[in-house]
TrEMBL record:
Protein name stated in the entry: Ribosomal protein eL8/eL30/eS12/Gadd45 domain-containing protein
Residues annotated as domain Ribosomal protein eL8/eL30/eS12/Gadd45: 8-87
Domain of life assignment: Bacteria
Signal sequence, start to end: none
Pfam families registered for this protein in UniProt: Ribosomal_L7Ae
Amino acid sequence: MENKDRILNFIGLAKRAGKVTTGEDILLNAIKKNKIKFLFIPSDAGKSSYKKFMDKSSYYGIPVNNMFVKNDLSNAIGMKRTIIGISDSGFAKRLNEMTNNCKGT
């Protein structure tokens, strides 16, 4: 299994565990309350959404990954969403390791 597939499967696991937050307004509030530990922003997100969430994540020190497109992330969690936040520090730590290891592929 390819590294990207493993990451997407792990996102699906986080979703089933109830550790995924979606929806722009909900995510922004969760970021402000320091509840989001890792953020997936698709490379094909709209310019304003992309900038808004990159700025927020930079300000609050949240690691971000943008190696996927909307369709990949939507398929991983089983619902059509653009931006995905991980609220559990254990899942976030593992996803951070996995995405850092995947950058070379």
